[in-house]
Amino acid sequence: MFDDLRGFLAHLEDLGQLKLVKDAVSVKHEIAAGMRKVSDNQGPALLFENVKDYPDWRVLGGLFATRKLVALGLGVPQDEMLERYMTLEDKRIAPEIVATGPCKEIKWTGDQIDLTKLPIVTHASKDCGPYVTIGMQVGKDPDTGIRNLSIHRMLVLGKDKLSLWAPADHHLGRMILKAEEQGKGLPVATAVGVEPSIVVASQARVPYGIDEFHVAGGLRGGAVKLVKCETIDVEVPAMAEVIIEGVTIPGERVPDGPYGEYPGCYSDAKQAPVLKVTAITMRKNPIWQTALTGMPVTENHTLIEYGNAAVVYREVKKIVPEVKGVNMTPGGTFRHHVVIAIKKRAENEGRNVILALLSMGIGLKQVIVVDDDIDPFDPMQVDWAMATRFQADKDLIVIPRLACSTLDPSCPEARVTAGMGIDATAPLKDHWRFEKVEIPGVDQVKYI
Ligand SMILES: Cc1cc2nc3c(=O)[nH]c(=O)nc-3n(C[C@H](O)[C@H](O)[C@H](O)COP(=O)(O)O)c2cc1C
Ligand SMILES: [Mn+2]
Fold it and tell me: How many Cα atoms occupy the beta-carbon half-sphere of 328 within 13 Å?
């Protein structure tokens, strides 16, 4: 596996999956424009070497723009990703604390702290400002001290202040609220530019109280090396490009937005916690990494696919042991829509699957269940199943007002959604009526 981000970049360069961009680009929109293009065109990732106003920096964008890049990051063949991801997610290898590391090569403390000296990118046309979009936030539960690793966007508010959009239904948001109840700020470190398994692990849907660095260890097949921060009691990846250390200001909230969000629409300004920066450390000749979100598919979608598909697969498996496929669909942002293929052996198993998935609260609003003779990844076959095996009056389930982690603008209020289930499995009774028409001997035809 890769020791650090630079190791992964060298690998991508060998494979022709990394483009070194020499053209001068601005951090305002111009970098994001290139990222949009490679997200729409199957890569490659982009390393901008000539960033206007930031001569000391290189900026990396679209590192996970395609599903192929995510698979390369984990060193897993793309068609085996879900199966392998699930095995590796369960492996769990504890991180190792080391004395120091490259992320300490340069240190800014006190008056040296200045976020405006980092090439933080403004992405979408209506974004309210520059955002850190792929920082790995590390926080600790104020009572147990157990770490959490996740990604939350941060808006630059000044030289030493950032917003930190971590809502209460995410683990870091919960920690911030817990600390506030004790009248304290929460120390939070943000690591930018780490190797891919740490990024993918940050998206694992593991319960509160599980340190995602253990998941990263399993994904990469070896312990992640962590070092202590300079100013807060938090550990961060030793090989990271940049570390931003800070403490949330208890009770303080700022408007954060509008921002071009993962559903592909702008979110309104939300009241986000504020982080006071206490130190910035980095490697020599640092690489700043930024990630695009907005209309699917971007890296905000590809990175989330397998964490979501895994938790859905496991939930379905509890009800129907023979799960043939789980397709979190790209148009459904890899969060909202799923197609499940099952081998059903009791009449209403599909309905149980629908209820179980809609009640998970992970953002699902549309669940389609098909039989195992349908490829859930083929929209034509799924449509055919709906055309011939589904009747809306008896096979459609609508559940109003579910609590749900979502930024979908069609929701009646924040974090509330209706759920829809479509049971497009054929009845077991009179099954011959739902069989696909087949012609014998097609495989033997040699003349075309
Ligand atoms: C590129 C990227 C950006 C993200 N930005 C945010 C964000 O700004 N706010 C947020 O709550 N979640 C964001 N997420 C999703 C969370 O990081 C994800 O749900 C994570 O699993 C939460 O961790 P937790 O389960 O420990 O709460 C982002 C994910 C990715 C891949
Ligand atoms: Mn977590």
Answer: 25
Eight-class DSSP state of 95 = -
Q: How far is the CA of 415 from the centre of ligand 2 (A)?
A: 19
pLDDT at position 404 is 86
371 and 341 in contact (C-beta within 8 Å)?
Answer: yes
Which ligand 1 atom is nearest residue 304's CA?
31
pLDDT digits (tens, 9 = 90+) for 3-39: 999 999 999 999 999 999 999 999 999 999 999 999 9
Ligand 1 pocket, 300 CB below 6 A? yes
Mutate which of 132, 151, 197 for ligand 1 pocket (most atoms within 8 A of beta carbon): 151
What the chain holds in terms of domains, given with CATH numbers, is 67-284 (2.30.110.10), 300-428 (3.40.1670.10)
- Average pLDDT rounded to a whole number, residues 353-363: 96
Closest ligand 1 atom to residue 169 Cα is: 27
How is residue 25 annotated by DSSP? Answer: B
Mean pLDDT of the chain: 97
Distance CA 162, CA 254 (A): 10
Cα 369 to Cα 80: distance, rounded to the nearest angstrom: 22
Length of the chain counted residue by residue: 448
Q: How far is CA 226 from CA 214, 232, 252, in A?
A: 12, 14, 30
In the reported structure, the alpha carbon of residue 48 is separated from the centroid of ligand 1 by a whole-number distance in angstroms of 25
Using CA atoms, how far residue 45 sits from 19, 101, 108, 115, 394, in Å, is: 6, 26, 29, 25, 47
Is the bond leading into 237 cis (omega within 30 degrees of zero)? no
Look at ligand 1, atom 21, and give the residue with the nearest C-alpha.
Answer: 203
Q: Is the CB of 299 under 6 A from ligand 1?
A: yes
pLDDT of 406 > 90? The answer is no
Position 405 scores a pLDDT of: 78
Per the omega criterion (within 30 degrees of 0), is the bond before 258 cis?
Answer: yes
Separation CA 165–CA 257 (nearest Å): 10
Q: What is the DSSP string of 118-176?
A: S-PBB-STT-SS-EE-SEEEEEE-TTT--EEEEE--EEEEETTEEE----TTSHHHHHH
Q: What is the pLDDT of residue 437?
A: 97
Pairing of strands 161-163, 154-158: antiparallel
Q: What is the pTM of this model?
A: 0.97
Looking at ligand 1, which atom is closest to the CA of residue 299? 1
Q: Which residue has the tokens 């793309």?
A: 78
